[in-house]
Write a structure and sequence with these properties.
56% of the residues lie in helices and 0% in strands. It is mainly alpha-helical. The protein has a single domain, classed as Globin-like. Helix 1 packs across helix 7, helix 2 packs across helix 3 (57-74) and helix 2 crosses helix 6. The longest helix has 18 residues, at 57-74.
Length: 147
């Protein structure tokens, strides 16, 4: 399975399709949680760590939780994000951060590193690709700075 990153462009927001709920069903909530938190552990050691509150453990834990509840919800799980934070306003929530295309691609590469091995855990490639395609396209919406 090859997860490819689509080139994005500031201000271009292609239509986004939520992941197939089968991804969450096959992965399960506990493994899904591990996936998102493992991604943040990779971020902490990456070239985009400066975009995250890695120096404040409490804030970093909160960022992980927000990411988990958001992705859980868009993947067909409980509406924890909406209950805790309100409506999804991800573009506005990320506006204060200088996110460029290079940073977006690093963020995606870190997810690819974690998603590809899920095939060996018995997760359907179709469902993994569904989640990946969501991340790939939606992340374009958050780019707000030239590289």
């Amino acid at each position: 399975m090859k997860l490819t990153i689509t080139d994005g462009e500031i201000g271009v927001r292609p239509p986004v399709t939520k992941p197939h709920p089968g991804f969450l069903h096959e992965v399960g909530k506990e493994r899904f949680h591990k996936l998102v938190y493992d991604h943040y552990e990779l971020i902490e050691k990456s070239d985009i760590a400066f975009l995250f509150p890695v120096l404040d453990e409490e804030d970093f834990d909160e960022a992980k939780r927000h990411a988990f509840t958001f992705l859980l919800e868009v993947s067909g799980g409980e509406a924890l994000f909406t209950k805790e934070r309100g409506e999804h306003q991800m573009v506005g929530r990320h506006a204060p951060f200088r996110i460029d295309e290079e940073g977006r691609k690093i963020w995606l590469e870190l997810y690819a590193e974690l998603l590809e091995p899920l095939v060996d855990e018995g997760i359907s490639e179709e469902y993994i690709l569904s989640f990946w395609n969501y991340l790939d396209i939606f992340s374009m919406w958050l780019v707000n700075t030239e590289s």
